[in-house]
Design a protein that fits this description.
By secondary structure, the chain is an alpha+beta fold. The chain is built from 3 helices and 8 strands. It has 2 domains: 116 residues, no CATH class; 53 residues, no CATH class. The strands form 2 sheets. Strands 2, 3, 4, 5, 6 and 7 form a 6-stranded mixed sheet that branches. Bound molecules: zinc ion.
């Protein structure tokens, strides 16, 4: 359970605290091809604001997802970020609403929900991963993958243009990832 103490915020609307936290996942978040596994560290920038109804929590989360590429089936890891905001009410009125318990709020459920919702269903190791050859099961090279796309000669010229665009995009992507 990951809790924040809000004793000095309770009943004092307008008060605000910002905290940096490093949290270790108690168990895997997510259960598809991409997960944040148990024991992975998460860096959180947490903002706790006292409002009339309770404590408003905003958080930015940075961690590492562990995934299997949906195209080439290779395992890979990748930086992963998500944000969430949640009101912890003094008197929750609906079942799904979070509450302030004594002088604590439990951030684990909204943190887990935010991470699980944001993890990709179809992770890819890189945007231009060519995937596996359906006949050999081997990793296709980029050219073979491009050829199999350009079937209709009427589209060949357009495909050429698209390929140029993709190269430009890749160049930008490479630059960003450095
Ligand atoms: Zn891949």
């Amino acid at each position: 359970m990951y809790e924040e103490n809000v004793r000095d915020l309770v009943g004092r609307p307008g008060e605000m605290r910002e905290r940096e936290r490093t949290v270790t996942t108690p168990e895997a978040f997510g259960e598809s091809l991409a997960v944040v596994p148990a024991g992975e560290q998460m860096q959180l920038d947490v903002r706790l604001e006292s409002v009339h109804e309770g404590i408003l929590v905003s958080a930015h989360v940075e961690t590492t997802m562990h995934a299997q590429c949906g195209r080439c089936l290779e395992d890979f890891t990748s930086a992963f970020e998500v944000e969430f905001q949640e009101l912890f009410a003094y008197t929750p009125t609906e079942a799904e609403e979070y509450g302030v318990h004594g002088d604590h709020v439990n951030l684990e459920p909204p943190l887990r929900d935010a991470v699980v919702l944001a993890l990709p269903f179809q992770p890819v190791c890189r945007p231009d991963c060519p995937g596996l050859d359906p006949e050999t099961g081997e990793l296709r090279d980029a050219e073979a993958a491009a050829e199999s796309v350009a079937v209709d000669p009427r589209w060949a010229a357009l495909a050429g243009l698209l390929a140029e665009d993709e190269k430009d995009l890749n160049r930008v992507t490479d630059f960003d990832s450095k």
